[in-house]
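The material for today's practical consists of a large collection of protein records. Getting from the letters to the C-alpha cells is the skill we practise here. To make this concrete, we reproduce a full record directly below:
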Amino acid sequence: MRHAMIDCYGCKNHNLENLVYINDTLNKLAYHLGLEPIANPYLIPYYYGRVKEDIGVSAFLLLKGGHITIHTFPLRECYFLDAFSTTNFDEKLLADMLEALLPYNRKMSTFSCSSRRKFTNIELPFDPNNNFGPHCLATIKMNKELTMDECYNFLDEFVYRINMDPITRPYVIKNKVQDANYLSGIIIIAQSHISIHYDYKSKLAYFDIFSCAAFDYSKVEELLKSLGSVISNELVVRGTKHKSNTMIEPEPLKEISSLWQKHIK
C-alpha cells in the first residue's frame, strides 16, 4: 500500500489548464504504473474562487481501491498530485513521468510517501501564510459494511462539519458491478479533495482529506469514529513552498458557479 504525494513547483507548462491533456495524463499514469482504473477521469475547472491566483483544474481518476488526483495552479506555476493504491507501485517512475508530461523543477518540489502508519502526539508545523494546506490520512476498522448511501451521505455532510467549501457533490462507485472488492467515494473541495475507499474483505476504510486551507484537524478523528475504530492517523504538510496571496473580493461569476449550493442546505 502506497500513497505518494508530490508538490510540483516551477511548472511553466500551459497544459496545467488543458482539460484534454490532463485527462490523457491521468490515463497514462495509471497505465504505466500498472494501476487499475474503475471509471474515466473526472475534471473540474475552478475559476471563480476568492483568490485570483488559485484558478486551475481539479481532476481525479478512481482506481480499484485508490485514486490519482491532481490540482493545478497555472498562475502559481505549480500543481499537486496524489497517487494512492492498496497495491505498491513504482514511485520513481511516477516522478519521472510527471517530469516528462508536466515538467516541474525537482529542486523546488517536494515528494513524500505514506504507508498509513500510526502516529501519536502528532504535531503539524503548518504555516497558513506560506503552506498550501494539511493532508490527513486515516485507516478505519468499520463497525459494519459501508453502503453506497452511507458513503455518499458521510462525504456530503463531512465537508460542512469541518467548514470546507464543496466544489462538487460526492461521487461514489464500486470497482465492479457484481462481487465488488472496493467501494470508493470522493468529493472535490476548493482545489483539494476528500476521499474514502472501503475494502469489503478486510472491512477497512482508507480515508484522506487534502485541504487548501487550515482546518481543525483535531476534529477529524472524532468524526471518523462514527464509522468505526481509527487504527491509523497521519498528518502531512503540503505546499511548504506555496506562498499565499491577499484575499480579494469574489468575482461576479462566483455567484453563478456556486448557485447549486443554495439548493442543498
